[in-house]
Amino acid sequence: MKKLKALLFDVDGTLADTERDGHRVAFNKAFQEAGLDWDWTVELYEKLLAVTGGKERIRYHIENYLEGDAPEGVDTEEGLQAFAANLHQRKTHFYLEMLKNGEIPLRTGAERLIKEAKAADYRLAIVTTTTPANVTYLLTSTLGEESIDWFEVIAAGDIVPAKKPAPDIYQYAMDKMNLTADECIAFEDSDNGIRSSVSANLKTVVTVNAYTKDQDFSKAVIVLDQFGEPDDAFTVLRGDAGDASYVTLELLEDLHARA
Length: 259
Ligand code: XBP
Ligand code: MG
What we know:
Elements: E1 6-9, H1 19-33, H2 42-48, H3 54-64, H4 77-100, H5 110-119, E2 123-127, H6 132-143, E3 153-155, H7 168-177, E4 184-188, H8 191-199, E5 203-207, E6 222-224, E7 236-238, H9 249-257
Parallel strand pairs: 1-2, 1-4, 2-3, 4-5, 5-6
Antiparallel strand pairs: 6-7
Bound molecules: xylulose-1,5-bisphosphate and magnesium ion.
Magnesium ion binds next to loops.
């Protein structure tokens, strides 16, 4: 077994609970601005989360959930692509505005874990399907400007054509860092996320959220409700955390060392 060298963090749902009150709200603002009467409710959005990536999610909605007339021009592949890209650009604008206003905090224990790992010289990376600017703004608005430099690689958005659940984005990050899967641990929150990380042969710690708590995480090394803090213990939903009551580097070393 190789030494544990790096922690690879998903963003949406893992570092921050971004989907329901962040991305979803920003999509709806973009729809409203564009004069579309679409409303991505909390329930509908759960179904749309089957597809990762905002542009891809807009297309998926048009192709599968549209009630009433399709917007003009989406009947050709180019038209559909351009429509999704334009709408998504505005969605990103509204999402960044929310981040700038500090409306989206990190999840419990995320800041502590990142800082402890950095202090102990673990290498850090972000591995996500979201737009790169969304990551930059989330990190700087929660951890400060300098936090961008704590992450050796920020693998995000369209940097690989096949988004999660494909393993490509994890593979991309590990290639950039010149690391193999057995030198890393991944952190995920969703079915699409763990399918991606496990396909890249990564041991994966899952912290669930309201949208993902009933998904299948049988391939995770441990499933928790949160990273936790010394005074705010996690609940272990699957697996064995030993004596730990929050995610520590010691627990990660222990999980990494297990078969
Ligand atoms: C996250 C996503 C993202 C966001 C939206 O998946 O699916 O698409 O919902 O981001 P994961 P963009 O956490 O598995 O990386 O709109 O910027 O694409
Ligand atoms: Mg996620």
